[in-house]
Amino acid sequence: MQARVIMLVDLDFFFAQCEERRNPSIRDKPVVVCVYSGRSEDSGAVSTANYIARKYGVKAGIPIYLAKKKLKDVDAVFLPVDHEFYDEVSEKIMRILRSHADRFEQVGIDEAYLDVSRKVNGDFEQAEKLAKKAKDEVKAHEKLTCSIGIGPNKLIAKIASDIKKPDGLTVVKPEQVESFLSPLPVSSLIGVGRKTEEKMVAMGIRTVRDLAEYDAQRLIEAFGRNLGTYFHKASIGIDDEPVQERSGVESISRISTLKKNTRDLELITEKTNHLCDQVYEHLAQSGLSFKSVGIVAVMTDMSILSRSETFENPTDDLEVLKKTAKELFERLLKESELEARRVGVKVFNFVKKQEEQKQLTSFLGFPES
DNA sequence: GTATGCTTTCGGC
DNA sequence: TTACGGCCGAAAGCATAC
Predict the structure, then answer these.
(1) How far apart are the first and last CA of chain A?
(2) pTM of the full structure
(3) Confidence band (pLDDT; 50, 70, 90) for A33?
(4) Contact A352, A288 (CB under 8 A)
(5) pLDDT at A364
(6) Strand A44-49's sheet: what is its strand order?
(7) Within 7 Å: CB of A251 and strand B?
């Protein structure tokens, strides 16, 4: 059993970098990739921005209008998102990265874990060379930079990848794990969100070092056996999560901004029926059935409300989807007085169609063939 | 008390 | 000072089961 060597590869400011590659003449300017909602000239939000734009405070999530204001005296480039193009680029890069890994796990469109333990014989020097080679290859074939973190597990690799970017490479060897982790805030650990961090701070735990020094048994008392054990192990750099292929998406959703804010169920249903059609189209390509339907509404004050329903048995029926979405919106409107601004539909809890058959037959007591 | 599953919210890009 | 997308997975909260 040799030591594990794990890499996390993160494609830098991915959408904006794709746009720079397509049109290199914009590379020295702020590049802002936007999602326009169509409601008015500049309504919408920033999806991602290159590092030049970030120097002006332009980053993912801010309104387009605000981004334009921050860049009003600058020669900046604003572009609409082009997901098809990014998907294409991502697919090619993932193929390159996969070829360098013993095991591969893609996370979203621009990130992947590579287990390279065997490939580099458990040697971190070799892993660093391999990472440079992968970076060079991605650069040569796809003209894109990425940032890589290397560590003895996914936890360390992920945190390491954030240390230097863009175009960074950070290696944390097993003997460096303790000094690497100790000073970080507990929120650096996956699994520690705002609430958990607050709870830990109240217990006198701010840094990973504090967490590591905290009595493991007391952690278990405070967070339960699973979480408590996980936190204790993570604090000393232990993480046994394997790098494994993701079987597929966990949810498919479509959301859209309404022309006008409304609480008229018929107007909303008109829009969500269309969204259901799109979700269904995507679903049909994947050959999946779903057990759960969810809806989401962004209200006038930008607060987000959601409702969902899980069925006894999986289905792939478009009419069931539409009917359920409508009922959920009806319920949501009863429980809020605000008008809806954006509405969305999603399906999740997937079952592959063959397995659905299997589930049914085993339920009925037939022997499996 | 803890595990599990479902629902809702949060947060990154 | 306001302004505001679409999609995903993770986190959190709760009810019920064990």
Answers:
(1) 38
(2) 0.88
(3) very high
(4) yes
(5) 43
(6) A44-49, A31-36, A77-80
(7) no
Say if CB A291 and CB A349 are below 8 A apart. Answer: yes
> Measured in angstroms, what separates residue A224's CA from nucleotide B2's C1'?
7
- List protein-proximal bases of chain C (any atom < 7 A from a CB): 2-13
Q: Which of A19, A20, A105, A111 is catalytic?
A: A111
Average pLDDT, integer, range A68-92: 93
Cβ of residue A353 lies below 7 Å from strand C: no
Is residue A228 a contact partner of residue A222, using CB atoms and an 8 Å limit?
yes
Instruction: Answer positive or negative: Cα dihedral of A79, A83, A86, A88.
Output: negative
Q: Are A11 and A90 in contact (CB under 8 A)?
A: yes
| Distance from residue A292's CA to nucleotide C16's C1', rounded to whole Å | 19
The predicted pLDDT at position A355 comes to: 58
Whether residue A94 is predicted with pLDDT greater than 90 in this model: the reply is yes
Active-site annotation holds for A111: yes
Measured CA to CA, the distance from residue A212 to residue A188 in angstroms comes to: 14
| Confidence at A369, pLDDT banded by 50, 70, 90 | very low
Q: Decide: CB of A60 under 7 A of nucleic strand C.
A: yes
